Amino acid sequence: MTTPAEAFAPAKVNLTLHVTGRRDDGYHLLDSLVMFADIGDRVTVRPADEISLSVTGPFAEGVPNDARNLCWRAAQAFGAPVAITLDKQLPAAAGVGGGSSDAAAVLRAMEAAFGRPAPVDPLTLGADVPVCTVAHAAHMAGIGERVLPLTMAPIPAVLVNPGVSVATPEVFAALASPDNAPMTPWPEGGGTAATLRWLATQRNDLQAPAIACAPVIAEVLDALKGADLARMSGSGATCFGLFEDAAAAEACAAELSAAHPGWWVRATTLR
Ligand code: ATP
User: So where's the catalytic machinery, residue-wise (predicted)?
Assistant: First the structure.
């Protein structure tokens, strides 16, 4: 490797998240339709004598720059020393898979830089890392290891984070029942309207427990009530509003940004 390599780490959005059981080892079984935004973090890897990490960008504060960071662990797992730069554009501990998407991006960048596939099972880095290596619409199941890429119509969306971070283990601890119904079959190859109709019949089982941990999430969902569908992603606190029309998503984002200057609000397209 002689030149730097860059990779984009898109925000991951769980359009549905059904918690369908719990294994004896404590891992939760999930059934989730995942799509990715056109906004996200950016990672760069450069040749170096040892692994290092520099975190920049609007959400750099509080993000670890050592082996606690999934970028670092991805480089370690790849087995080559690189200097990593992480431009943190996504809020952390926000339910949009920041760390997982960053780890997958480091693996992609290192594969490009070293010209060989990553010799690592992405699941060993985290439950969301396998789906983040796909980085476009997919059905995720099991504890995250089963990933089936899907062809879905792109969906205009608004992502909103109210600035509170939510710890995933706390949300799972507040989950009343870990044994809920799986998703019903989604409309394969349908348009955006058909997908939205189907999504309205599905759930995020972590939404109620996350609201119990961070009541402001209910305010965010209320602020998104003009969307065709509003729901929380992952274990929160980021919520999304979905729209059939990109102009409506842009208008909603402009309105919410003006009304809530402290919130992180972005219009995007999910793919
Ligand atoms: P998910 O949607 O997969 O549950 P999340 O978006 O809720 O993930 P992350 O942004 O991955 O959560 O952050 C969770 C914790 O992981 C943070 O509190 C942080 O300490 C740690 N962390 C490790 N690597 C990273 C990273 N690259 N970016 C942000 N946080 C990271």
Answer: 12, 128
**For residue 168, which atom of ligand 1 is closest to its CA?**
4
Which residue type does 245 have?
A: D
Per-residue pLDDT of the chain (271 residues; tens, 9 = 90+): 568 999 999 999 999 999 999 999 999 999 999 999 999 999 999 989 999 999 999 999 999 999 999 999 999 999 999 999 999 999 999 999 899 999 999 999 999 999 999 999 999 999 999 999 999 999 999 999 999 999 999 999 999 999 999 999 999 999 999 999 999 999 877 899 999 999 999 999 999 999 999 999 999 999 999 999 999 999 999 999 999 999 999 999 999 999 999 999 999 999 9
Which ligand 1 atom sits nearest the alpha carbon of residue 235? Answer: 4
Where does 5-148 sit in CATH, by number?
Answer: 3.30.230.10
Q: Which of 6, 96, 12 is nearest to 59 (CA)?
A: 96
Structural tokens at position 101? 């998407």
99 among the known binding-site residues? yes
Which pTM was predicted?
0.96
Is-catalytic flag, 88? no
Could you give the ipTM of this predicted complex? 0.93
Do 5-148 and 150-270 share a fold? no
Q: Where are the domains of the chain?
A: 5-148, 150-270
| Residue that the structure tokens 């969306």 belong to | 157
* DSSP tag of 226: T
Superfamily of domain 150-270: GHMP kinase, C-terminal domain (3.30.70.890)
Question: Residue 259, SS3?
Answer: helix
